[in-house]
Amino acid sequence: MGATTSAAQSLHAGHGRQPSAARSLLLIDCGSAYTKMALVGLVENRYRLLASVAVPTTLAAPQADIMIGVRNAMSEIEQITGRVLLRAGQPILPEDEDGSGVDAAVLVSSAMGPLRLMTLGPGRESLAMLLQRALSGLFIQLETQQVPTDGALAEGDLHRLAAHLRAVQPHAALIIGAPVPTPNNVIAAAAQSAAQMIDMLQPAAMDVSYPRPPGIPVIFSGTPADAQTVTAMLQARTSVQSVDALSPSTLSPLTRAVSALYDGYALREAPGFAALRRIVATPPIATVTSLGGVARFLAHHFQMNVVAVDVGASSTELAGATAGGEYLPAVHPTAGVGAGGGQLARAVGTENILRWVTAPVDEDDLREYILTHLIRQRLLPATPLALEIQYAMAREAIRLAMHAPGTRVAGLHPMDIVLGTGGVLAHVAHPADAALIMLDGLQPRGITSLVLDSAQIAGMLGNLAMLSPDIAAELSSNDAVPLLLGSVIAAEGDAPEGQLALRIVLEFLDGRQQVAEIANGSLVRLPVAPGEHALLSLYPAPNVDIGLGPGQHARSSEPVEGGVLGLIVDARGRPLRLAADPEMRVEQLRTWRKALRGEDES
To answer: pTM of the prediction?
Structure first.
């Protein structure tokens, strides 16, 4: 009972059963299209995943109440497990003596989209890089507002500002001051502009049972003297929180201040959120924030570099973490494969999405797909073409998030573990499709383990870790990453197409040996079965690099474990290049897909 007891005692009191008696938990992830839920309970004194479900999120008429979707998910878990979770339509907390209900619930969400943050102030442009570093990885959408030096706006400018604000409906304003005291009129102009914004904005439609305070909140980052000026000008209209001026060593105060607004201003706009908020034991956090906690835990636990990937309907989130404790998030809050498809296509171009599709398709077909999924956000791909388009969009969404301003995931090397989670990756038609999406999107180098969170609970564990690190650790080890797709050896170099890129010697633990010669430009599966282990000896061509330098040989110090796709060798080069000729490109894609799918390719 040692680990279990300490885990139970770490539970936060105030919601559900007292910490020392905790026996069960409910993990909830409300996305823009689907609400995922997992029931966790004790099995032989260890916390294990008992059931997980996904149901439509209910944010629009005729079911404009997020709690309807949550109760629907609870009803499905009741049917699967036989455990009673609802009484008279209400969640049972804490767990009854007869085993009904759960002791605590935690919530992560991206349902209402990102926190919309209007930025202004004299330091916004000069401190742009530091601002990007401070806010990278948060589920926010930055909007900018130009302000005259004297704070005065002409009548036409006022009309344009009002129209812009009504379109954006920012949740909060961020004033970035200079790192040194500025002339009083400069910072006063920024404060005056914020005051005009507050006056122009009308409260957005929201759950009236959970009203927002009057005026959008303001965060000011700058010197104490400038903070006094901003506070004096705005305190009659709204709340003002001042944090340290931005510098390389003072990023975290701004990060924490902006992150804290997500629950209070973005999520509470969800109809029915007040009822959902009352049943959870910790403040809800954005899905990407929770995913980052999982990546950091895995990186620390395995002492390896980790990248977690979640491609959603409306947003795309990557969370990188190094063995040394560095966190490297990458988020595109409005680009995904469903409602975020239009933003994705505008950002990357339709031609970059269509280059991954082998079927005859043009821009009109892609636009039709995007518009259909914008209108019917929970529509699942029903044809091979629709699947191909979704997978193509997922590749480009990953690439877009990787190279978003301020992110550093693209420079992480090696990516020792890549964890795929979320519905797009978990529900692929074949495990090879998930592997190809992650390989083509991330393009890792060296040796990488591809792992799929088929239960879709990894994104919830970061918030659970705030409630109980021990329980989150047990679930991460036992249930969150159950499907090893395979280890990948990625070679890069300038060897001519078709020539030998890499020679591999596999030494199995039963004494067998296998030698494989890999041609440049190819993608190959080697037969190392799930649970089977083999030592690797790698002999690249003189101009081919497997992560140690061109031509450098390597031998694994520990056996590599096989996955459902065996051992994958990716000798397609980095950066990955698709043929310019359409027919050759289609043949490339089909060859790569067949290589990973094997005889299942069609």
So the answer is: 0.88
